[in-house]
Each structure stands twice: as C-alpha cells, then as structure tokens.
Design brief:
Blueprint (H helix, E strand, L loop, with lengths): L1 H8 L10 E2 L3 H15 L4 E2 L2 E2 L7 H24 L1 H6 L1 H4 L7 H25 L5 H20 L4 H19 L1 H9 L5 H26 L15 H20 L35 E2 L1 H4 L9 H9 L2 H30 L6 H29 L5 H26 L5 H16 L2 H10 L6 H17 L2 H11 L10 H6 L5 E4 L10 E4 L2 H11 L3 H21 L18
Antiparallel strand pairs: 1-4, 2-3, 5-6
Helix pairs in contact: 3-10, 3-11, 3-14, 6-8, 6-19, 6-20, 7-8, 7-11, 10-11, 10-15, 10-18, 14-15, 14-19, 14-20, 14-22, 14-23, 15-17, 16-17, 16-18, 16-22, 16-23, 18-19, 20-22
Length: about 575
C-alpha cells in the first residue's frame, strides 16, 4: 500500500531513488523487455520511441475537453453578466455603479491568479504526480467558484476570482501534455484542436448563461435561493464539475510525466500474498536497474533559462500573447459594445447573439485549423512547426481588416458577418500555435513550456486587455458618464452622449455613455493584432534556418545546449 501511494504521488525519476523489493525485479525486467520490443514499431519523439499510454485516448480526450469547457464557461459567464455586476449595489458598495476600469479588474483578477501560479505548479510536476496535481486543482477550483457565488462585496469577489485562477493553474499546463502523450501521431493536431475548441465554446455559452440568468433573483430577496441570478452560474458550475473530478481522480498516474507506461509502472502488489514492504533478507533493487534511464525533470530556473534561449518558443509566445490580448478584450467587452454602442442591442439578445456566434466560430475555426495542418503533413518536427507558423501568420493577417471593419458597422447583420469571418480566421490558429509551443521543446520540458507560455500570454494578454479597453473607453467618454439624469445626458448631443438602460430591465435608472467610446476602444484593441503575424513570421524564419542547417548536416544553432540536459530539451 505504501508503494502504491508513493507511485500515485511521487514521480519515478533517477533523482527519486525509491527502492523496491527484489521479488518485483522479474516483473520490472519483463516490462522493460516488452517496451523494447514494442518500441521498434512506434514513432520516434525527441530521439526516443514514443509509447502508448492509454487504451482509450478518445475517452480521455472527451474527459479533458469537458474540464476545459466548464472552466471556460466560468470565464464567459463573468463577461456575460458584467453589466449586472457593475450595477450590483452590494458589489459596487453603493448606488453608483462600478467604473469600466473596476469592472475590467473583475475579469483580470482571475487571470492574475491563473498566470502567477501556472509556473509554480509546473515546477511541482518534478515532485508530485501530475495526475494528483490535476485532481487537486479541480477541487480547489470548485471551492473558489462556490466562493464567487457567495461573494457580497467587491474585495471578496476579486479574491474569489483570483482563487479560481489559482485552481485552474493547477491543471492548465498538465492536461495539454497529457493529450500530447496519448494522441495518435497522425491525429495529434486534431486532438489538441478538439481540446482547445472548448475554449470558444465554453466562453460563448458562458456569455449566454451569464446574460440570460442575470435576471433571476436580481435583488437577492428570494428566500428559496441563496444566490443572485448572476451568481447562479458559478454555483451551478460546482455541481457540474463534481463527477468530472471523480473521474480525474482515477487518471493513470504516468500521464504527463513523459515516461513510458511499461517502464514506469508500479509493481503489482495486489497479486502477492506477502506484504508489499521490503522484508528482512530481501535484496533491494533500484528502479534504474530495471528501466531505461529517464531524463531528469528540470527545475523552474533551468527551464526558464532554456526557454529564454529558444527563439522559436519566444516569438511563438509573443504572437500568441497578442492573440490572447485581443480575444480577451473582445470576450470581456463584446456584449457591452453591442448593448451600449451604435448597434443598440438589448442585453439578452446581445448575450445570446455574441455568445452563439463565438461558439460556432470557435468550433469551426479550431477544427479547420487542426484538420488543415494534419492534411499538410502534421505538426511534428521542424517541417510541422514551419507549416504551423506560416499558417498562423497568413490567416491572422486576413483577420485584422475583417475585425476592424466589423467594429465600425452600425448594421447588426453586417456586423455579424464580418465578426464571424474575423473570429473563424483567428480560431484556426488555436491548434497550430499550441502544437508549436509543445513541439519547440523536448518531452520533459512540455509542462514548463505550456505553463510559462500560459504565464506570458496572460500577463501580456487578457490580464491587461479588459482593464486597458475599459480605461480606453473611459478616456473616449468625453465626460458623458458625469451625467446622472437622463435629461441632461440626452441634451448633450455635442459630445455624443446617450442614456443607456438595461435592455432586459426597462425600469432601471440607467447611465449616461458616449455612443462611440467602446467602439473606439475596440478598434484600438483589434488593430494591435497586426503585430502577431510579424512575430509568427519571425518564428517561421528561425525554423526554416534550422531546417537548412540540418540539411547541411550542421547542428542547429538556435537552441543552445546546457550540460545538465540532453538535446531533447
């Protein structure tokens, strides 16, 4: 029992010299010989044969996709009910609503906790089993969502949203590497694409749920409901995630470790009549004698130094950060843009329309991107990274003018056509860009790669964009929010002021806004996306140079080696 528990928690690496009784020596050697025979027919990854890790990869893909869907539903729900949160007297601390900057901070609080703790949990992957970290993170995520549903003040809401981000940080870096472990080589990009397709789908349906359910128990006076309408989303998420947590607790312990199933499996103590602990007189066997040598798990500082000298990783992440910056700002403010801008869309209609369009474009775009890359030869190796980087740069370059035109439209049908085209093009890059992030490094660096990538795309992306778009919107308001009465607001036509009421609540007092303040802020936001194809093009040039060096027989010059690590890293 002790060995089984240690196998669940502690990774078996050369630095973890867990001794085993001699009676298990035969079983371990047998497994090693089986691995050697099976490896002959398997593809090579990082100089070592790739090994199957699960019997039903599509089942595990579905489980992880549900996790990703629910976690992104949570993010979308915040955006969908942001206007209600702004006017909640308990959260705002009085009759005056939250400013756009304060409302943007509610969205960014989650991202802050998420990005700060992602590298920390990645470092723990060398000490604690990734499967255990994932299950523990899901439990913490549920607790934080429950805190969000019970928040009654602005500081409590900010704290709860930060802790939701911490919980998600525990599993965000490990799940993509687990999928990369068991995905069939010919379907690798599609597997990664299916997982990341849940990002726009979950976000979009969260927007719909947040926009529709906010009407329920708005004042919190319903004695049969302990939560307000906008908080019901987060209360519901806890119960939905419970059966998923139960399934994740049973995850194979080797997933995400980069180790082989056979060579790293624990001794089968359940079939032995004797105790599993070492007995007197037993010769103890070090696992290194029975299994192939594994690369040591790098420390966080070693991983950062190696990634900092990897230009493919750096430029891919910079482009990804701009992608996240724009999508984060659009997700946070898209619904309010439709409500308070020149489109004059009611809250419920704006939530449903924007949410469903994002869901549809997310599914179509992500699957098209994964399918196209796999059809062109896949995302593995230098040729795969080159194809992915070129594809990302090309489609993003086309997306920018479509998005800019969409936010200048005053007609709902025209707006929807162009915003759908822009979003489909953007979402086609989701699977290829994540494939490059995983492929640019070796097996033991994948979790760090995803975690550090997560840190930077959020630190430079959707942590900043909701706040910056809100601040830009405030700066473009030309003093309109200073009016507290409809008469004064409506009379100030020189500054484009208009009185805004909640489309789902005609009796609300409303507030004064400049008609184009959010439009101008969104145009500035989307224009910044033009830098993403530049960074991805630079990454493609670096990969092309590496391919030419390999064709000449010279070692790649863009990835300096460290004595402590093999070329795999």
């Amino acid at each position: 029992l002790k060995l089984q528990f240690l196998y669940l928690i502690v990774p078996q690496a050369p630095t973890q010299r867990l001794l085993m009784p001699k009676k298990h020596k035969g079983k371990l050697q047998h497994r090693t010989k089986m691995d050697a025979r099976e490896a002959e027919d398997l593809p090579m990854v990082g100089g070592h044969p790739a090994k199957p890790t699960v019997k039903h990869p599509k089942l595990y893909l579905a489980l992880f996709s549900i996790v990703n869907f629910v976690s992104y539903y949570d993010r979308g729900a915040i955006s969908g009910c942001l206007s209600t949160i702004k006017s909640d007297t308990g959260i705002a601390g009085g009759a005056d609503p939250l400013s756009d900057t304060q409302a943007g901070a509610v969205v960014s609080a989650f991202i802050f906790g998420f990005m700060v703790f992602s590298p920390i949990f990645a470092a723990l992957g060398g000490v604690i089993r990734p499967s255990f970290i994932v299950a523990s993170g899901l439990v913490g995520w549920c607790i934080a969502c429950f805190m969000t549903s019970m928040a009654r003040t602005y500081p409590m809401l900010i704290l709860a949203r930060s802790l939701v981000g911490v919980g998600e940080a525990a599993f965000c870096g490990f799940i993509p590497t687990m999928i990369d472990d068991f995905a069939p080589p010919k379907s690798r990009t599609r597997f990664i694409g299916m997982y990341f397709a849940m990002v726009p789908v979950g976000t979009a349906l969260g927007m719909v749920g947040g926009g529709v359910l906010h009407n329920f128990n708005q004042d919190g006076e319903d004695e049969h409901s302990p939560v307000k309408g906008w908080q019901f989303n987060f209360f519901m998420q806890c119960w939905i995630m419970l059966p998923v947590i139960a399934a994740c607790i049973r995850l194979p312990a080797h997933l995400g470790t980069g180790s082989a199933l056979g060579a790293d499996a624990p001794p089968d103590c359940s079939k032995s009549n004797s105790p599993s602990s070492p007995q007197e007189g037993d010769e103890l066997l070090d696992p290194e004698e029975a299994s192939p040598a594994a690369d040591p798990y790098p420390t966080a500082w070693q991983a950062v130094k190696l990634l900092a000298r990897n230009p493919i990783f750096i430029f891919t992440v910079l482009g990804y950060a701009l992608y996240t910056f724009v999508l984060g700002g659009v997700a946070a403010w898209g619904i309010l843009f439709m409500e308070q801008g020149e489109l004059n869309t009611p809250t419920n209609l704006a939530s449903v329309t924007f949410g469903l369009s994002t869901a549809v474009t997310g599914i179509i775009g992500t699957l098209i991107g994964g399918w196209f890359v796999d059809r062109q030869g896949g995302s593995k190796g230098n040729s795969g990274m080159l194809a992915c980087s070129k594809f990302n740069a090309a489609v993003t370059l086309v997306s920018v003018p479509c998005g800019l035109f969409a936010f200048t439209c005053t007609s709902m049908p025209v707006f929807l056509v162009f915003v759908i085209v822009a979003e489909v093009l953007l979402f086609t890059t989701t699977a290829p860009v994540n494939s490059v992030v995983l492929e640019a490094v070796g097996t033991q660096m994948r979790t760090y790669s995803m975690a550090i990538c997560t840190f930077f795309i959020h630190a430079l992306g959707d942590v900043l964009s909701p706040i910056l778009v809100g601040a830009a919107s405030d700066s473009f308001s030309q003093g309109c929010p200073a009016y507290t009465e409809e008469a004064g607001c409506s009379n100030d036509t020189a500054h484009g002021c208009k009185w805004i009421k909640d489309g789902s609540d005609p009796d609300s007092d409303g507030l004064c806004r400049n008609e184009v303040q959010l439009r101008n802020a969104m145009l500035v936001l989307y224009a910044s996306l033009i830098l993403a194809p530049i960074f991805w093009s630079i990454a493609a040039v670096v990969v092309k140079r590496r391919i030419r060096e390999e064709e000449r027989g010279a070692p790649p010059g863009d990835e300096p080696q460290s004595p402590a690590f093999s070329e795999d890293y």
